[in-house]
Amino acid sequence: MKISASILATQITQLSEKLKSFDPAAIDFMHIDVMDGNYVPQISFGEAITKEVSTQTSIPLDVHLMVSKPEDHFTKYLDLKSHFVTFHQETTNFGVRLSEEIRKSGSKVGISLNPMTPVSTVKHLLPYIDMILIMTVDPGFYGQKFIQGGLDKIKEAKDISSGRDIWIEVDGGVNETNIADIARAGADLCVVGAGLFKSGDPSENARKLKSLAS
Ligand code: DX5
Ligand code: ZN
């Protein structure tokens, strides 16, 4: 299991200090939740903060675009050499073109599905993507409760993508009580916010989650 640390759950003023303490062997990706106050209620951060993070850590970026019309925003994150750029299935009519443009830049493409969006809706996009992100909360806030129905969706995503080099990422409410079930269902990568930053050392928490998942 790989872990992507959601910086949405940190105090942004302390981020620089925290980044220095992250162990790249425990925290595999920096999860950047870009929120526009339109597709989701809150505005979080955008290009400037993402750039700061990219200059202060060698941990690769996992950018999660929670924005309406991602086609108007994504190029900024390609310029920052993000490892993954993920957009929401519900936000664009141009998934194929967008995926091709992300791939052309060298970044990997993720497609995110809200809890109400069926896995079957990504079927025709499979040749163009590298990751399916299963949202296990309604997007918009950290610290929400994991939606149990997500476990079936992880299995479905694993089945529909079998035989292809596609990762399954899970985002929302992942913690010590559910990561073993999430791993068994077939997830490759978990986003963790509150579960890493609420208390204790984030790298230590990530190590513990990984051992529970193995
Ligand atoms: C929710 C975000 C998540 C969130 C995860 O909309 O996409 O990445 O920050 O935080 P936790 O793990 O606390 O649910
Ligand atoms: Zn996210």
Keywords:
alpha/beta; eight-stranded parallel β-barrel; binds zinc ion; binds D-xylitol-5-phosphate; 214 residues; 31% helix
Give a brief rundown of this model:
By secondary structure, this protein is an alpha/beta fold.
Write up this protein:
The protein is α/β, with parallel strands linked by helices. Helix content is about 30%, strand content about 20%. It contains 8 helices and 8 strands. It has helices at about 15-20, 45-55, 75-80, 95-105, 150-160, 180-185, 195, 200-214; strands spanning about 1-5, 30-35, 60-65, 85-90, 110-115, 130-135, 165-170, 190. An 8-stranded parallel barrel has the order 1-2-3-4-5-6-7-8, surrounded by 4 helices. Helix 6 (about 180-185) crosses helix 8. The chain is globular, with a radius of gyration of 16 Å. The model has no long low-confidence stretch (mean pLDDT about 95). It binds D-xylitol-5-phosphate and zinc ion. D-xylitol-5-phosphate binds next to strand 2, strand 8 and helix 7.
